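Slide 14.
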Amino acid sequence: MKIDTNEMAKLEHATGTAPRVDLYSGIHKALRALMADILVAVGRMDPEDESEFDWVSSRVLQLADVCTSHLMHENEFVHGAMEACQPGSSGRIAHEHLEHGDAIARLKDAVQQMRASQGARRAGEALSLYRQLALFVAHNFEHMHTEETVHNQVLWAHYSDEELMALHARLVASLPPEENLFALRWMVPAMTPAERLQVLGDMQAHAPAPVFAAALDVVQPHLDLRGWGKLSRGLNLAPVAGLVEV
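Slide 15: predicted structure.
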């Protein structure tokens, strides 16, 4: 896929003059972080270490399930909104989603084939999976870029920020709690401090206290001390012991 630099320039101009609600930014940061982390894990995996082998291969299967769920959510909520206001506007990416479904199935098959192998053959299967996953990640990165540029232009042209926020709320409400927490675990650490504060500040203001506490518990282990300190101050939580600002 060729990245359209003209579309990128249009988006940068739009976001530079009038920041809008972006349905894609947060979850795509989460997916990029998750994909990169798992790709590195597969690349350095010791196929002779059974516990490591089982853990890493299970993470690839988990990624496959996450990607499948993500496709379904985008098809139902985002593409539905796009087609309602501009028929045909989601066609290119919808077609790629079908291709991604096939690629996800092939990833799962490759994991099962690797798990069934032994010895030198297992090492070869692991390398093959790594290369296959690398191409999958590369295509998804380009795919997400198109959604963030081309699709956002359609959404911003036809929907207000309030309408986009309501759409996002409906999407999030459709997810089981464990899926929401998993998304937060990868999304919040990948965000800027301002983005983190916006997401968790909204939760603090509107979510039940146990839900907000669970979100903090999921996120905190994956932030460094300085990042957690900035978030804590923004949320008016207890000060972070040992943090010295420079």
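Speaker note: Residues 119-158 form the longest helix (40 residues).
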